[in-house]
Amino acid sequence: MLHRAIAVAGIVLPVLLGNAAAVAQDRDRMIGLDLSLRAQAFSDRCAAFVALKQLDRAIQFCDRAIELSPRHAGAYVNRGTAYDNKGDHDRAIADYTRAIELNPKFADAYHQRGIAYASKGEHDSAIADYTMTIRLNPNAASAHYNRARAHFFRGDNDRAIADFSKAIEMNPRDAEAYTNRGTARDRKGNLDRAIADYTKAIEIDPRLHGAYAYRAKTYITKGAYDRAIADATKAIEINPAFSDAYINRAAAYANKGALALALADAEKALKLNPNDADALNTRARIQEAIAVYRALKLDPALKASREGPKRRGAEP
Q1: For the purposes of burial, counting CB atoms within 10 Å of the CB of 279, is it exposed (0-12), middle (13-18) or buried (19 or more)?
Q2: Which single residue of 83, 110, 239, 291 could bond 209 by disulfide (Cβ 3.0 to 4.6 Å)?
Q3: 124, exposed or middle or buried, with CB in 10 Å at 0-12, 13-18, 19+?
Q4: What global pTM score does this model have?
Q5: Per-residue pLDDT reduced to its tens digit, 268-302
Q6: If pLDDT is split at 50, 70 and 90, which confidence band does 23 have?
């Protein structure tokens, strides 16, 4: 018998003449391949719109991908990412879970689900997913970084430092990892090592405002108020909307006795973030100190309180 080649969607398949069943089977296969290719195209467009932060359009394209290919694990992950970026963490988790059901070795699905759990404050579940990500992909530096953050929020500074260190080992230019390892070291009381981490982060990225602000915090703990003010001021120059820097500079000014300047910074922090508990507490303590000195007919701009406001605690 003769053989012919039928080209469909760029794919050439042999069809045996006179065999209707074989022809029908090949047609079904070609249709399936075509649907899969179209689903992948929709999933790719979904991912592109996620990157553009056009999340509703992204979800529409992922919906179409899943309609065409209900077992397309990647489309579920992309749609989950869109939901997560919209703040709908439960839907995101449902999509990531479905992707994992379809492909239990899909490392990115575990990683993204871990991020969604962390956004909900469910750090134990996040750690479990990041750990699975690392098991499937030992070179996933971002999974080590994110697991470190989850350990930090659970108060496990030692594990946080270990994972931040691993992330740095994998990517020695990761300034954020150095900054966050510094916060964990600060919480353990390793102030000099914390300052070294913040300094390294600044060497890598001189525009990283958080590294300056949190180094300022550590300098306050060490009593180096002038250095703290310089660092907080630099952070504010880089990012005038970063309320933590104003809180830390307020604490440094207060400890130096410059209560008027301290109060101005506390007010600025509250203007940026009216519900910030640290800023409210800092302002209250400064106002108390000013009231005492006015009662004593002293100049609150020059006299320091015996115990100044606490510096702002850093979070990764």
Answers
A1: buried
A2: 239
A3: exposed
A4: 0.81
A5: 999 999 999 999 999 999 999 998 888 876 655 54
A6: very low
User: Can you tell me the distance from the alpha carbon of 47 to that of 70, in angstroms, rounded to the nearest whole number?
Assistant: 17
As a whole number of angstroms, the distance between CA 186 and CA 215 comes to: 9
> What top-level class would CATH report for the domain 228-316?
mainly alpha
- pLDDT cut 90: percent of the chain above it: 78
**Amino acid (one-letter) located at 129:** D
Could you identify the residue written with the tokens 């759990």? Answer: 117
Note the pLDDT of residue 37.
87
Least reliable range by pLDDT among 74-78, 171-175, 244-248, 300-304: 300-304
Q: Which amino acid is at 285?
A: R
Amino acid symbol at 74: G
Alpha-carbon distance 242 to 240, whole Å? 6
Name which of 138, 140, 139 is nearest 112 in CA terms: 140
Mean pLDDT of the chain: 87
CA distance 65 to 46: 9
Q: 63 exposed, middle or buried (CB, 10 Å; 0-12, 13-18, 19+)? A: middle
Q: List the structure tokens of 135.
A: 């098991």
Contact 213, 201 (CB under 8 A): no
DSSP the chain: --EEEEEETTEEEEEETT-HHHHHHHHHHHHHHHHHHHHHHHHHHHHHHHHTT-HHHHHHHHHHHHHH-TT-HHHHHHHHHHHHHTT-HHHHHHHHHHHHHH-TT-HHHHHHHHHHHHHTT-HHHHHHHHHHHHHH-TT-HHHHHHHHHHHHHTT-HHHHHHHHHHHHHH-TT-HHHHHHHHHHHHHTT-HHHHHHHHHHHHHH-TT-HHHHHHHHHHHHHHT-HHHHHHHHHHHHHH-TT-HHHHHHHHHHHHHHT-HHHHHHHHHHHHHH-TT-HHHHHHHHHHHHHHHHHHHTT--TTTPPPSSPPPPPPP--
